[in-house]
Design a protein that fits this description.
This protein is mostly helical and 108 residues long. It contains 6 helices and 4 strands. The protein is globular. The two termini are 22 Å apart. It binds a DNA duplex (13 and 13 nucleotides) through helix 2, helix 3 and strand 2.
Length: 108
DNA sequence: CTATTGACTACCG
DNA sequence: TCGGTAGCCAATA
């Protein structure tokens, strides 16, 4: 059952609500959770999200850069997943990032 | 207990 | 425009 008292689990819930073909940033999630200064914690939570049903590949830094791709299997799995959703990625950076950006604060 | 590290972000020159 | 630095908070050694 959902222990939403944990900051990590809150991150998972938000990330899980990211619609198909959209992405968001660590800071956006952190800000939505009321911890704008804890963007690093969101990324830290993603490291532990391997066992959860969390589309961590849809979460990137505020520049649209795939900083966490090294945590996925292989070397380009994260990019491949994004491209599979219709998101163009070049040099570990999402193209037209603003267009695919999904803000939880606005959507929720 | 302190020090180091990290899937970040904002500020400064 | 761009690179470096500081602040941030939790986990790990």
């Amino acid at each position: 059952m959902s222990n939403s008292s944990l900051f990590f689990d809150k991150c998972y819930e938000v990330v899980r609500q990211i619609p198909f073909g959209r992405v968001t940033s660590y800071g956006a999630v952190a800000r939505y959770l009321g911890a704008a200064k804890s963007a690093r914690m969101v990324g830290y939570a993603m490291t532990a999200s391997h066992n959860k049903d969390v589309p961590a590949h849809r979460v990137v830094n505020r520049k649209g850069l795939l900083t966490g791709k090294h945590h996925f299997e292989g070397t380009n799995l994260m990019q491949q997943l994004l491209e599979s959703e219709g998101i163009q990625v070049k040099e570990n950076q999402i193209i037209d990032f603003e267009s695919v950006f999904w803000d939880p604060a606005k959507a929720l």
